[in-house]
Amino acid sequence: MYEGGYRGAAANGNGAPNFFPQQLLGLNNYSNQSQSFQHKFMPHNTNLPPHQQQNQHPPLGNNSSYPGQNKVASINVDDPSTMYWQHQVLLCQISRAENIPHFYARQFALNSRKTKNPYAEVKSVTLIDATKTIVTALEEREEQQRATQAAQTPSALMRNKKTEVEDDEEQRMMARTRGKQLWCHLDLSGQGLSSLLPRLFQYDFLESLYLNNNKLTSIPPIIGKLRGLRVLDLSHNRITEIPPELGMCFNLRYLYLFDNYIKKLPYEFRNLIELLFLGIEGNPIELNIANLILERGTKALIGQFRDMEPSYPEPKPRQWLLLEDDGEVIDPVANPEKYAEDHLNKERSDSFTLMSYNILCQHYATPKMYKYTPTWALDWNYRKLLLKEEIMRYNTDVICLQEVETQTFYEFWTQIMNEAGFQGYFFSKTRSKTMSELELKKVDGCATFIRRSKFALVLKQHLEYNTVCMGLDRYKKTKDLFNRFMNKDHVALITQLEHLESKEKILVVNTHLHWDPAFNDVKALQVGILLEELQNIIRKSSGGSDDYKNIAMIICGDFNSTKLSAVYQLFSTGVVHKHEDIEGRDYGRFTDDGFVHNFKLKSAYDHIASTFPFSNYTPTFTNEIDYVWYSTNTLKVKGLLGKADQEYFEHHIGIPNAHFPSDHIPLVTKFQIRSKASASGTKKPEFKPDLKAGSSRKT
């Protein structure tokens, strides 16, 4: 075990690596593979005894061998002269030279000492250093090629949408342990190990694991728990098969399998979306795999696995769960008759169903963002049909969608939903106001559909959070407001509906908050503004009354906030003041006195919180961030759509994929209207449009 890690190759005064030729970078063709070439460019560890130095560099050839290892044969590929295969051969030879116990730990300690001594000789190169130099050169060339291609999506359309900051991932992974974990690399090379204890795989903080030069014949499936691994060296063992679970280690950058007995690679390698180099030389591997690597490299191999037709089973349908009046889940196995009764009486006069679903706008669903998704499954023409099928299958009375593209709403969803008996309402994000006619069609927003046989529209309004702040004097114009809040253009779509059978009025709010966790204060302010404006709307409509207990209200959407957030606390408790999300920020009275509202709200899915692990599922983030908030005085939850198939997701690192069209899953809730909420004698508010709040598009 050792602290720290490898941070790149040694450099000369100009910052360039000083021990790699152009050939290694793949910039020129190799003229030969002579001993002189090998002697000149293979790393020489001058710190070893002379008898070990002479064994460091076995000759290149089809039957290379070295002390303590079985004889291995090079793969008989179609064209061994390609750049990618030359990388394979060269890195394999470097790996074979690193055949002393604990090589990586020794080398790291040695280089650390040399770094402190400016007069020491140049640091020795390792397999990792060599690989990084090769990969860097390849990435620079790819970047140059990409720079010549025109962007398909205007940059303005991508504003405020999450992007993967790969450069910061190492810091993010180290921050997981809050500084408590002081080492994250483990070198067990050259120890004669023939098996591995399960305890090893409890170290889920590991970033590098070196098991090369041992006697391992297999790797246990539990290795899939090491999802933080970036480097894994299994070279020079006796491994015959790679477990499919290794595919769950999606952070792997470098995977070395040199000189084993591996014939096939598991289909689950499709999940290794960050893999930059896969070392396979010295294995009896299938030629189609080897030839693909020599022609197009490691990334192309992973891409081919990813784009293959899925061989895994479809997920099990999500379980519909009924709730008692006290909120307890009714066991479907012990009470099948209640579920049968619910199905027969689904059109009760005092109940309705609602869906909230972030459907992932096609302009955000890019191959760079969703590397793990098959290209054909990421295509909008595929996803929109899957979305249509899913939404129609659940057949709810109210459908609240987020990330709906403007053009898609009018040309796709409106026609489909109209034929199914729904009326649709839509409002796009604020940025559309400053765009051309062509560009604004690609801006996303919130869409709400209501079943015409169940509801009638009473009023429709919208809130543009930044516009509301600037237009009203009660919101203090602080530096944080201008620098952090005003450039976020999220909206809320408000519809007040009349339930035709019960004649009850229900306020339905559909919204989508900012995504970035670095701006949790912005989300809290967005919600604070939303709740305050809702209170003002209700107060005006009820003749100045501050009694909110008779208001039937649902606020749903993608809040991009976990249960530890200020947003969740504000909704669930009615107040948030001292919270780390808003600490040190200045939003006037919101931060001076705290955020406060007078509604009695609860998250519908809190009823099954212990068994509902996520609503958003990606490799780097899995959590519940979508909510359906409802007024507990006027509504009660009678049914919920349960969690997604847990066994299925144990083999997938993220969605969308072939079976899930979005990176979110829909929330579906059955509500029952509480009997005569106005029994207290308070006049129920008659809602009228507030023209200051704006209006939105309607079809």
UniProtKB/TrEMBL annotation:
EC number: 3.1.13.4
Example of a GO MF term: metal ion binding
Organism expressing this protein natively: Metschnikowia bicuspidata
Family recorded in the similarity comment: Belongs to the CCR4/nocturin family.
Protein name (Swiss-Prot/TrEMBL): CCR4-Not complex 3'-5'-exoribonuclease subunit Ccr4
Region Disordered, residue ranges: 40-73, 144-169, 676-699
Location(s) in or outside the cell: Cytoplasm; Nucleus
Major site of localization recorded for this protein: cytoplasm
